[in-house]
Amino acid sequence: MFFRLMKRTFTKGFKSKILAVAAIMLGTSMATAMLSISMDIGDKMNRELKSYGSNIVVKPESAYIPAEINGVEIGGKRDNRKFLTEEDALKIKMIFWRHNIVNLAPYLSMQTKVKGGKVTVKGTWFDDEIRIPSGEKYRLGIKDLKSWWEIKGEWIQDGKSNNLAMVGSDLASENNISKGDLIKLEFNKDGKRIEKEVIVKGIISSGDEAENQIFVPLNFLQSALNMGNKIEKIEVSALTSPVNDLARKAGNDPESLTAEEFETWYCTAYANSIAYQIEEVIPGAVAEQVRQISESESKILGKINLLMVLVTIAALISSSLGISSIMTTKVLERRQEIGLMKAIGAEDMNIVLFFLAEIVIFAFVGGAMGFFLGSAFANIIGIKVFSIPVAMKLLLAPFVIILAVIIAVMGSISPLKIVLKLDPAEVLHG
Amino acid sequence: MKNVRMFLRLIIHAIRERKSRTLIIFFAISVGIGIISALSSVYYDINTKMAKELRAYGANISVKAAEGDKFSIEKIDNIKKILGEESVVGVRPDLYGVADVKSNNSVLKSKMPVVVVGTWFDQIDEVNPYWKITGSIPVEKGVGEAVLGETVAKKLNYGIGDKLKLTYGKLSEKFIVGAVIKTGGNPDNKIFLDIEEAWKIFGNKGYVNTAKLSVIAGDKKPKSLIASVNKNVSGIEAGSIKRIASSEGKILSKIKSVMYLVVLVILASTVLCVSTTMMTIIAERKKEIALKKALGASNIIVISEFLTEAFVLGLTGGIAGYVFGYLCAQLIGQSVFDSYISFKIVVVFATVVLSAVVAGASAMFPLKRVINVDPSVVLKGE
Q1: What DSSP designation does B68 have?
Q2: Buried b / exposed e along A174-195 (16+ C-beta atoms within 10 A)
Q3: For chain A, how far is it from start to end, CA to CA, in angstroms?
Q4: pLDDT of B161-195, one tens digit each?
Q5: Which of A158, A201, A221, B225 is most buried per CB count within 10 Å?
Q6: Partner-chain contact A27 B273, CB within 8 Å
Q7: Chain B residues touching A430 at Cβ < 8 A
Q8: H or E element: which one contains A342?
Q9: What is the Cα A26 distance to its own chain's centre?
Q10: What DSSP element (H or E) covers B358?
Q11: Interface touch B98/A74, C-beta < 8 Å
């Protein structure tokens, strides 16, 4: 009898029930979309925030204090400079959190003279194909790292030891240098004069000290000055987790952590645990967070996450209300049916069970459809905003479907109670 | 006149006699519209709010002399006026000099040249909120205190409270180390003094090399702000610090478009959810419509009655929803941005009108189907 009744539900009067399923589907889709987006937003925004550039700088430990004003070196003792090697830079791509290292660029900076004036020239990777010892190849360098640089001309690609250069815009306008020019760099190494000519590929306008500097391929500068494979600074851009109390405690003094805390800290991608791991693989190096980037990044990510959580809660409230109000109306609408059932002798319990079974089935179907619709919404948002789809989270499916069922049931219980109390005669009479 | 009275009485009666159903739809409308209005209020404010939050990255505009390497510090006031005092979060001028500092090591007493920066200490919090400060930044101007970059402090072995002698040519001045800053960038290699003290050592009183400004661009384009500064203040050249300013633009537009699409999805599903409830409630009243028609009411009269009822519900629900939504928006504003979400009259109109239109439209849809029923068939029962 129960099954016959259930079957009838789906054959007769099905049309009017479509609305309820549709409402459940819409409500669930809204919840699914918001949950998937807010689960993904931290990761997606983290990638976007990489446009602020490197958040960790690696330098050799040395007693030397650079005296630099706006990228121009002033006097300063440079005789006891210390260096790292190019191989050290590659090691960074092999630490525990190597997949979080988005990009890196080594630097070697030297003093030179251009048309009589003192200039800092930096050797680096621009957009170079680099093979790390484990065999994998990456494209690394400042082209990605300095996303805010505006270049007149073009970026140097696979610079290697080619005599190419990119010149800062201030320097270029002072000395009348433009794209395609050949400029002479005069170095003074241990009292010996070395002259090299380079072709200007592009002019850099960056709004920072790079506008007073010249950038050349790293290997070119190293071989010009017989520096072997020496470098003296590595800029690293890493995807990091927002700073929390543990990271702060470790930042003050890693020694103060208990063994357990240390393990958690070490195995989380905090900026300072990544820096710590870099120091582990490069002996004699100091890896420091660029606080301007890493601190601000966690603040902003924290805000965005919190915002999305609150928006998600709002969406959940709205969707549960949507679902439960349609369920309430649907039950009230069927007063007469319930009255009739009662009149021909059905017990309250039977009626409740019958209705609940029907509601659970509808909520299940609506919830499942809503899950897919919501995942599609989330995907569209991901592609539109971040050009990366938001992956469908199957783990969410049971959660939202059960949520839909619970809300639908809760929404129908109180009207069912009301209707059951009514006298069948009164209801049927109209 | 009589007709109008009758019309009103019918509507009031319909709402009063069907309390539970009216309450459900009223509740559904006001919560749905409330959430929509909360989110759209937040959406309209997100640009200014996030722009303010992004000031965590510090200065986004730098100023230097148009000619020569120094400009008068008085220009800073002019620049602030052009940008609008309230949008300037902080300004910090820099006067550069190089002075010799003796190492504080007991054995090695070597001298080192260090870059010294004269600045306004009270602006460090605003312009460089990301600096990690140990000790305390001197508050009073002109006191004999210095702030050391971490590298300087470590390499020359100075701690908080130590005495430090700066030598520039024949001049030398003593300072007490008040604080050590850690930034992971260039400032770690520098010594900071109050600008008055720096003028005493390096001369050039009243002049500075650069100034860094942290400015909330909000809806205005940073480029146009800078252009207006350059046009209105002579003798200086303002430029954007592209690392911060250009990334900021990208991040803001991402956040804005995420919010936009999210609000759109929520708007669409909420509206549809509300209207399904509305449709059910109307479709249920087939009998009532039939009875009215049997008593001689024309289609137009029945439709206008139902529509007015829906509009009244939509309007009141919308107004209640807006109030509820405004409170929700403040809750979001307070917990995320520590500030209130601004009141936008556009949102009031949009949400209330939307509410009425949604209620009306979703009443119209089932009405169209039910209106041509044959009264006798319906009233007789199935």
Answers
A1: S
A2: ebebebeeebebebeeeeeeee
A3: 27
A4: 899 888 888 888 889 999 999 988 889 999 999 99
A5: A221
A6: yes
A7: 287
A8: helix A335-343
A9: 28
A10: helix B345-370
A11: yes
